[in-house]
Structures are given as C-alpha cells and as structure tokens.
C-alpha cells in the first residue's frame, strides 16, 4: 500500500477500506508517513468527507493505537461525560460529584483548554495541590472507594489522535465532522467507560456553529459509541453565549461551588441536570429523566454533592478547605467594568471572541508551553435578552496586566451586541440524541 495512492483515492472522492485507514493511522503514528502526506490526506477529507464505515474505521484505528484502559476492576456501570468544547463550561465540576454521590461510578478523563475553549484539568488545578497525574491503579481505587476520579489524557491513550490533532490544529483541518467525531470517540472508547454522555455544543463559541451541523456530529458519535457497545447519548446545547456567568479558571470553580450550594444560573443548572440525568439513565440507576432530576436536585439540597467535591479534591491531593471557603482562592489584582455604550437589549455575544478575551488576559494557552494565569477572566452581569441602559455594567474583567487588560476591553466590547428590539435567548438544551 502507498500513501500516495490513498491521497489520490480520497482526492477523487472515493471511500477508503478499513485496511487502508489502519495503514495510514498506524504508519503516521509510527512516523513512517510524514506530516506533509498526512496533511494532504486530511485536506482531501475536508473536501470530500468520510462515510460512516470510514469514520468508524478511523475511530477504532485511533482508539487502538495505544492503551485501551481496562476499568473492569471498577464495580458497576461507569459513566463519563465529554463536551465538544465550550466557553464557561464548568459542568464536570458540578455533575461529577452529583452523579457520584448517587452511587454511580464516574471514571473521567479530562483535557486542558484547547484554542478559545477552557479545560476541566486547568480548572481543577486551581485547588492548591490537586493533581490529575495519578496512576491507573490509584484511579481505579479512588473510583471504587468514593465513585469519582478524574485523570488527564495519558501519552499512551489514543496517541494517533494526539499526533493527528496537533497536525489538524496547524493545517486548518479541525472543523470536519468525521475528523472531530473520530477524535473524540477514539479517546472515549479507549478511556473505558460503559456509559458516554456527549455534550455537543452549537453556536458562536463552538466548533459546530449551527444546530444542523451539531446534530449531525451528535448522531455520528452516538452511532459510533453504540456500535462499539457503549451506551451513548448526546445532548445538543446552545453555545451562542457563555455557560453561566463566569469565564476563567478560578472564577469558574467559584461558580461551580456556588452551583453545588444551590445557586446555579438557570442555563448551567439545565446543562448539569440534563447531562447528569443521562449518565444515571445509561448506568441503570434510574428508569426516567424526571426520576433522575428529582434525585439530582436532592444531592444539592442535602449538600451531599458538595461534600463529594471536597472528598474528591482531597483524594487527588487538593486542599478541600477551598470548597467550603472559596474566598481563599487568590484574586486578580485589577478589575474593570465593561459598560453598555448604548441602551437596548443584549442581542448577541460572539462567544469565541469571549473565550479569546479570557485567553489574552492569560487564562488560556497561546502556545502548548504557556503557563496559565488561573485568576483572570470575565464575570458577566448581563447575558442575551437583558435590557440595558447606557453605562450599565455588562461584565467585569479580572486581570493582572494593564496591557493585556486594554486588549481585553476592546475585544470584549466588540463581542457584545446591543440591539433595539427585545430578544429572548434560546433554551440552553436544544435536543437529545439517544439512538440513531
Ligand atoms: N475535541 C477533540 O477532542 N477533538 C476534536 O477534533 C475537536 C474537539
């Protein structure tokens, strides 16, 4: 088999066989196929797409390119949740403890921030001492003991995806449906959970900008997951504005703690309740979503979810006092109130720009090696649909550097659109895909 012929075949719009896809994934992972040939192939995929069988072959080849985690030593049906990437998304910190406190094991693998989107690991590292670098044995032991553990993606998990993702990132080949679906599902299948709940974001802050594209991605991933024998659901959620009010690591952790104390903004509450309900349903803990929602609400009212967060933080080396006394978290040295320049209604928020605003403040990585500033970010006071008068505060920026702050002010002002006609925001949950 020759890579040249496979590039030609895809360039002409033909489907590759399973053997051909395995040849190129294995060859690339081993360094036998160079970046320039793989780049040409990926671009051909962007123009011609992949059919269902090809997408499944790509997923399985990448999942099997490294270690497939064996979680069989964990008792019960293990549930995992994965988001396609959003702004202000702190749901894992809330629903992980909620689901675990109901006895369903949550064995979760999380990522760091990617592009304009935030990552759960960076947020968790806001707790002094917290580490996601725990051994597989410790991971399994923690889940068995207290039903919740989170690790980072190890170098050995789906290494083909790791290498391909880095190449896609610099060759403008990220936003292709089959490539995204196989990238996400290869990691989820290798990570070993029985139940996979996907949060597929749609809108200005997501990789999929329209509902239709998000739905297609959701259906593809659900088909792959169920085809591989995992109970898979996808929730499609709105990302035309940040989730909740806070964007930025410590600011989001504090909002998550507020949520576990029963004070979640409505969209964040909807997201956590819906995603967690499908985790419980898939694991067979409940027989319906309304039953799940009742149980989940009780974990907040009784404080068991908050206690679970503290237990989990401590078990991974973090200081649990921060869970009960969030004022202990360090604060940025500068704050700036971004005001409405005119009166009207907030009619749009360019959410990708909002994510980038947090990034330029230092809250995300400009390069793979960048150190991130956990204290910076944005806290919104108003979101889509809110009526504003000239001079009302729309958001507060938290910064540690004057130059970065001025760049962020300009960026954020442009990202918020004020119109003259009342608008009602879209519901946060746009749809659910159970089986396709
Ligand atoms: N997240 C991933 O893990 N992979 C993609 O391709 C896009 C988002």
Detailed description of the structure:
The protein is of the alpha/beta class and 436 residues long. The model has no long low-confidence stretch (mean pLDDT 94). Strand 4 (195-202), helix 10 and strand 5 (231-238) form a beta-alpha-beta unit. The strands form four sheets. It has a four-stranded mixed β-sheet, sandwiched between helices. It has helices spanning 3-11, 18-29, 35-48, 52-63, 91-100, 120-124, 136-146, 159-170, 177-190, 211-227, 249-260, 266-282, 289-301, 304-315, 321-324, 351-363, 402-415; strands at residues 79-83, 106-110, 148-152, 195-202, 231-238, 246-247, 334-339, 344-349, 377-380, 387-388, 393-399, 416-419, 429-433. The protein folds into three domains: 3-49, Transferase, Pyrimidine Nucleoside Phosphorylase, Chain A, domain 3 (Up-down Bundle), CATH 1.20.970.10; 79-325, Pyrimidine Nucleoside Phosphorylase, Chain A, domain 2 (3-Layer(aba) Sandwich); 332-419, Pyrimidine nucleoside phosphorylase-like, C-terminal domain (Aldehyde Oxidoreductase, domain 3, Alpha-Beta Complex), CATH 3.90.1170.30. Helix content is 46%, strand content 15%. The site of uracil (URA) has 9 residues, from helix 9.
């Amino acid at each position: 088999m020759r890579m040249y012929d496979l590039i030609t075949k895809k360039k002409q719009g033909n489907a590759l066989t399973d053997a051909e896809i395995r040849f190129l994934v294995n060859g690339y992972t081993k360094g036998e196929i160079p970046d320039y040939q793989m780049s040409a192939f990926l671009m051909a995929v962007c123009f011609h797409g992949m059919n269902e069988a090809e997408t499944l072959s790509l997923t399985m080849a990448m999942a099997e390119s490294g270690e497939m985690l064996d979680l069989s030593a964990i008792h019960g049906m293990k549930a995992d949740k994965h988001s396609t990437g959003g702004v202000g998304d702190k749901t894992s910190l809330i629903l992980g403890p909620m689901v675990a406190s109901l006895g369903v094991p949550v064995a979760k693998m999380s990522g760091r921030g990617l592009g304009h989107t935030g990552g759960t690991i960076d947020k968790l590292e806001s707790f002094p001492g917290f580490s996601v670098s725990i051994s597989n044995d410790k991971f399994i032991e923690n889940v068995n003991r207290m039903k919740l553990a989170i690790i980072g993606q190890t170098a050995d998990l789906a290494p083909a995806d790791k290498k391909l993702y880095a190449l896609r990132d610099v060759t403008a080949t990220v936003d292709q449906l089959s490539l995204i679906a196989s990238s996400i599902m290869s990691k989820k299948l290798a990570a070993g959970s029985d139940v996979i709940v996907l949060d597929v974001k749609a809108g200005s802050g997501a990789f999929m900008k329209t509902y239709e594209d998000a739905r297609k991605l959701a259906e593809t991933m659900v088909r792959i997951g169920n085809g591989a024998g995992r109970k898979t659901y996808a929730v499609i959620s709105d990302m035309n504005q940040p989730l909740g009010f806070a964007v930025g690591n410590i600011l989001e952790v504090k909002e998550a703690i507020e949520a576990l104390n029963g004070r979640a903004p409505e969209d964040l509450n909807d997201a956590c309740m819906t995603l967690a309900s499908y985790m419980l349903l898939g694991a067979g803990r409940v027989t319906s979503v309304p039953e799940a929602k009742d149980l989940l609400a009780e974990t907040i009212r009784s404080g068991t979810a908050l206690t679970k967060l503290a237990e989990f933080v401590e078990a991974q080396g973090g200081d649990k006092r921060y869970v009960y006394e969030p004022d202990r978290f360090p604060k940025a040295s500068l704050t700036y109130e971004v005001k409405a320049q005119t009166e009207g209604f907030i009619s749009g928020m360019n959410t990708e720009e909002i994510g980038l605003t947090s990034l330029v403040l230092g809250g995300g990585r400009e390069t793979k090696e960048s150190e991130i500033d956990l204290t910076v970010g944005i806290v919104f006071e108003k979101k889509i649909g809110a009526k504003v008068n000239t001079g009302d505060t729309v958001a507060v920026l938290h910064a540690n550097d004057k130059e970065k702050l001025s760049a962020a002010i300009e960026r954020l002002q442009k990202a918020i659109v004020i119109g003259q006609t009342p608008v009602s925001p879209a519901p946060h949950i746009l749809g659910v895909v159970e089986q396709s």
